[in-house]
Design a protein that fits this description.
single chain; mainly alpha
């Protein structure tokens, strides 16, 4: 704990600059992928969410360690988690009461906020891994989903053909 306090006081502007620049880069990586697919929350939205979450964590650290107020440094960051829900809810729409649209974008915003919180506290390795996983989830998994749907469709068609053949042969 004393090492964290010393780190904050010593590095000051350089540490803050690094954390905020990483928030721009990491939020931008996730947001660019979403923006390419025409999603409501693209690069700018993800960057702003990540910067805001990073700032929230930095403020919590500052209040606790620099100003010496007796507070939990991540308490203010915890409000990001519930607050981002309101932003995410605005991304989610239903189509005809049956189809939900925007859920992945909302989840991506939430994940981007948690990456910002990690950056704000200086947990760089977790933030890097999370960016990789979120990006991979948004970019690579849809390909696997399409393959699974295709395989399932082929299996369903074969099953229906077999049922028809059995019905015809039973006559």
């Amino acid at each position: 704990m004393t090492q964290a306090i010393a780190s904050i006081k010593e590095s000051g502007v350089c540490s803050i600059l690094l954390r905020l620049l990483l928030a721009v880069v990491f939020g931008g990586i996730i947001g660019t992928e979403r923006g390419k697919h025409g999603r409501a929350a693209g690069m700018r939205t993800h960057i702003l969410v990540c910067i805001g979450a990073t700032m929230t964590t930095l403020i919590g650290e500052y209040v606790t360690f620099v100003l010496g107020m007796s507070s939990d440094p991540v308490r203010i960051g915890a409000q990001v988690i519930s607050g981002i829900g309101f932003l995410g809810a605005g991304m989610i729409m239903t189509r005809g009461g049956l189809r939900v649209k925007g859920l992945t974008t909302a989840a991506g915003l939430w994940a981007t906020a948690t990456i910002g919180l990690a950056l704000g506290i200086g947990l760089y390795s977790a933030a890097i891994i999370a960016v990789f996983l979120v990006y991979t989830t948004n970019k690579v998994l849809p390909i696997f989903e399409k393959i699974l749907v295709l395989i399932q469709g082929i299996y369903t068609r074969k099953s229906m053909m077999l049922q028809r053949l059995q019905t015809i042969s039973a006559m």
